[in-house]
Amino acid sequence: MLLKQLIIENFRNFENMDIDLTNRNIIFGLNDIGKSNFLSAIRFLLDRNFRRNGLTDSDFYDKDTNREIVISLKIDIADDEENDDNKKIYTMMSGAIPSGAEEIYIQLKAIYDAEALMGQPNLFWGVDLENLEAIPSNQSFFELDKYFNVVYIDSSIKLEDTFKRYTKEILKSESSLNEIERKVLKTHISNLNKSVGKLSTIKAFEKELKDEYKKFKDDKNFKVSIQSEIELSNIHSKLTPYILDEKNENYPTSGDGRKKILAYTLLTLENRRLEERKINIFLVEELENHLHRSMQIALSYQIFSDEIFKYLFMTTHSSLIVSQMDEVTLIKLFKETTVNAKSFVYRVPEDYKTLKQKLNQNLAEAIYADVVLLVEGPSEKILFERILKEKCERYESFGGYILEVDGINFKEYYTVLTALGIKVIVKTDNDLKKVKGKTECNLLGVNRCQRLIGRREIINLKGIDLIRWERDSHYIVERKNYVFSKLPTTIKKLKENNIYLSRVDLENDLYEVIPGIMDKLARDKNSTKNGIDYLQSAKLINMIELSTGISKNGIDKIYKHKRFECLKVLVDLCCR
């Protein structure tokens, strides 16, 4: 079973949204953009308890109760007829689904009833979205409610409530105990009830009640007895979870983080028992609240490795919660004239499996932005942030973000971000790589940029002097300058796509703009190197020093220079 598509029409802040899904879906977006409403649409469709109270006028888009709410879910069942969940679908829709069907639809429709002051949800299913049939129902209970179990989890979850619900379930009948346990418990409970009734404070209270009663009505035959009524059926309400320390001393669980993790544990335990007969759909909302980073990472490992969460919709603002994500659909909600969404099926590339956590965390932070500037590493980020402090200090609050790829291919970030409708700017070095055993080099930097926009790669540069290449760094710089000067049409095309290739690299670009400032920095540190070599000798430390000490005049020169046009584009896109 594969979740494929969700269409939401005229529901809350969604006028008409059509979004591709997969079985694990991560929903991003700014506050108040509709992430909770997105989950509510799924709850109305599949969760009987959420659906049973109907829809109010505020559930209709723009409170326009003349329009019909329609929520449609497409499910692919072609992957494996022997799949247990596919079998549940066939059993559930018996008579409404032909053999060999590949896709089915489940749909909710609601028309507002002005007399009842609510919209009554009606459910439909079938294989043709334009010709669905009503789902059999008994009052508010539909046939699909036997087979779908929606588990909603949010950060306000209470351990006490979850624990009592779970323990009530496991102790709800005496059949959950063996005969010896049942007999022993009944004896203990009976003795406890008798002992409570005999307590001196209870007897004194009984006398007080009797005497006070007689003031209202002198009834010589009146007696009152206060009795304990602890029973096996309500014993769950008296259970409390404790944590044992290393000395085996008992402490009631405390601390929001520990309580929440234990509550999540109970939920997974509770719903594992339903897997054989129901399809669990987990809706998880902002788990990160009140959780330390280590707990967030631990939750991420669990959520994205445990099969119990195979059908998942999750909203989050935390890069740590999604640090272990793989094979998920990233869904970004955004607002133009109305709230809409873009989605992208994201799989961690094999080459970056060992860097998955870093890749995912970077993506999760960048995905909230409207404009992302991709740069090589920390040196670029430090310098650019210093310049933007003068030119548009609040660029991040306006939707801008600088992301350093730092060893991860630009392509991985570029593909995901652009697919989600985020404007991407790229600043990268004009790298060359000598081809082993040949007198030629690969135009690594140029072709990196070409691949980003789907253009063919440029052929290798031939005629390399191998001796000079190995011994003279200035020769490599010369070759890079040569490549840049020979490709004006390519460079122009890249700029049209907001991709900016250095003539050589960051330090050489800077030296073209502020040679005096860079040379002075080297001299002040008693270095005999020129400004370029000095910066490159301890790249990060020296870049911090340059960025800290640079004047506003120096910043102006960099900002206005064509080598750093990427910064002006970033400011124009988010600060104007």
Reported for the largest beta sheet, the result is:
6 strands, antiparallel
Estimate what percentage of residues fall within beta strands. Answer: 15-25%
Shape: elongated
Helix and strand content put the structural class at alpha/beta
Mean pLDDT: 90
Helix content: 25-40%
* Total helical elements: 21
Give the low-pLDDT segments: none
Strand order within the widest sheet? 2-1-4-5-6-7
**Distance between the amino and carboxyl termini:** 47 Å
How many domains comprise the coordinates?
A: 3
Q: From the alpha carbons, calculate the radius of gyration and give it in angstroms.
A: 33 Å
Q: Quick one: how many beta strands?
A: 23
Please provide a written account of the structure.
With 576 residues, this protein is α/β, with parallel strands linked by helices. It folds into 3 domains: 2-147 and 277-335, P-loop containing nucleotide triphosphate hydrolases (Rossmann fold, 3-Layer(aba) Sandwich); 160-258, no CATH class; 369-574. The protein is built from 21 helices and 23 strands. The protein has a 6-stranded antiparallel sheet, covered by helices on one side. Strands 10-13-14-3-15-16 form a 6-stranded mixed sheet, with helices on both faces. Strand 11 (242-244) and strand 12 (250-252) form a beta hairpin. The longest helix is centred in the N-terminal third of the chain and has 19 residues, at 179-197. It starts with a strand and ends with a helix. 31% of the residues are buried. The mean pLDDT is 90.
